[in-house]
Amino acid sequence: MKEALFTTIAELAEGSAKSMPDMFQPARHLVCSTPATLAFNSPGAQGFGVKRAGLAVPGSVMLLAAPRCCGRNTTALGSSGEYADRFYYLLMDDNDIVTGRHLNRIPEAVCEICRDRKEKPSAVMICITCVDALLGTDMERVCRKCSAAAGVPVEPCYMYALTREGRLPPMAAVRKSVYALLEPRPKQADAANILGFFSPLMDSCELRPMLQKAGVRHVREIARCRDFAEYQQMAEANFNLVLNQEARYAAQDLQKRLQIPFIELTRRYDLSKVRNQYQLLGSALGIRLDDAPYAEEAEQAVALCRKDFAGARIAIGEWLNGDPFELALSLVRYGFQVPEIFGTAGEANYSYIRKLAEWSPETKVYANTNPSMLSYRKDREKVDAAIGQDAMYYHPDAPGFRWNEEAQPFGHAGIREFFTRLYAQLQEN
Amino acid sequence: MKRLLKKLAPFAPDHSGAVSVLFELGGMITLCDAGGCTGNVCGFDEPRWEHTPNAVFSAALRDMDAIMGRDDRLVKKLVRAMEVQDWPFAALVGTPVPAVIGTDFAALRRMAAKQTGKPVIALSAAGTGLYDKGEEAAYLELFQSFTEPGVADGNTIGVLGVTPLELGSADPTGLVRKAFAKMAQKIFSYNSLEEIRQAATVSCNIVLAPAGLAAAKFLQEKFGTPYKVGPAILPRHIREKAAELRGKKVLVIHQQFAAQAVRELLKDADVTLGNYFMQIPEFAQMQDVSLAGEDDFAELVMKNNFDAVFADPLFRRLIPDYQGTFVDFIHFAVSGKLEEDF
What separation in angstroms does the CA of A31 have from each of A38, B58, B78, B253? Predict the structure, then answer.
């Protein structure tokens, strides 16, 4: 059996995103499906995929127009409280997938769905899949027809797995879809939106209170909108904060359609970078953001962990809330060791990879989805903790935590929570 | 609308059925998809996967692969992956993407076999069919490709239809071996390539689901191996409930042979079998019905005044006002739920 392939950070840093080894390019090899990779091999299989994400619009329902296989895993989602009775399926047969005649039936299906419900949905999201990607379906036109027939807003969601590494991957496209129903409204100087996630920021995150203290009284997130009217208030925002680059396209669309400018922030686990980012944000907005008390709390959590466990060996996965390379770099800078990263390196990670190579050149990087990962041996590297659901899979006997909960960590609160959990795990060890 | 599902979710598709038959055989299984189908199979339709992550791969097809029909690239990927481990064979399983672009699976199979030097089977599922069609095709392909001539040894029986999708168990092989332990010294559930190879040595094949019937007929024709349908493996509570409902008017919804087994237990009852899956005419009775849409089921129940309905719990959603006895008869291919009470 061939051993699991890896490369060192130093080797990776020598190249560039354009010369990335094939093992880090999923389209260049078969993708290995293990419990460690399911979430990124098939984003809909766990967490937020296009189908679940599309229903972030309050009061909306979804019609999946696709072959039966595309909706199969939604059986589980459809039985859970929040999503029960919000999924509908228009099944395509062998003729449809070649001729595209299913498109003629979609308006009738939307009308029947609206008729059948006690209350008309706020919107119908129509999810289409690889088949329509290949047929070249103009789903915007179909949606307009549906909307005219049923009298509700209808918006397409493109679950085009075939375009995953393309210019507009499905999870970026669906972010645009869920904000596409916002209609122009007069701007409010004290309102802002946080874009990027389908679930809310963790309650303890300082971003909201800091903004509110600085005069931005209404800070809205789609996941916290209780109904469609509240969702529509997001159109009043004076600016959008983009916390996940997959929401950039949505923000650009909102800028163009509703003249809401946006500022991008990045999730970091390096205290100094977080502070710096807030300072820049304050300057850009012309307000003073006082993050000192939050930074102090985070610093204390980091310091406690460093004091007792500096040098601990921590394996980092990519199935977590963060960039695995940035997280590894931060940990190494704090004084921990990162012998392994399970991650798919790409252009976005390169700035971290180069810096990490200066600090920890021997760190091994395994390509999670490469077939050789079936041969990964857990005894090869001794680690004191494994962070991320995938890293925990590879090191089942090591203490660790998944760090992929739906409430999104960000800023100082994210760092504080992370190190509090890390400390608890290392102590247990 | 016939193909609009408002209460149910789609039943397990053909490629899930194919993978279900192949899963324990130790081969390298590759779904010719972009990633989502593999996720559906592994994350939902294959309960054995979580604890036994066998080699299930996605071809990771991208738009240009599909538009340009780059089968050569897929074969190259396959060849490279085959270097990781010494898999005895490779299986290529179709999904909607190759169905749309009209992939020639026979040619793909030949190319892959030539370049890997290993036996390759190819199943052109489209993701539009039902799981039993995929199981049927996989069984047939396996026996046609691998079974060697042999002489029945009298100590071995074979069982077809041993998958979680049919039996609702995450250990279907264990379940079958336990259930049929008294019938023979050795039981082939066809969960290893060796058992597939030696299929001609079994004295009889027991068919638990219509999906296994075509393979049983093939083995009979080619090697003279007799087959019979059942005895089915039914959950304990189904057997008990069936005994209580004798003489009543009952509707049973499941795969045909499991439903048929319940009918046999319902002595003196007026039993109708309703079936969304394969309906083999020679095992059906006049009153049995094939169902297609959601409304078919609700209408059947409304019009016939059944005293009891045996069906997967998911079907309860279609008849919220039903006053009779609803017996939960889990079918994994419908709800994705496992039965624990055998």
Answer: 10, 5, 10, 37
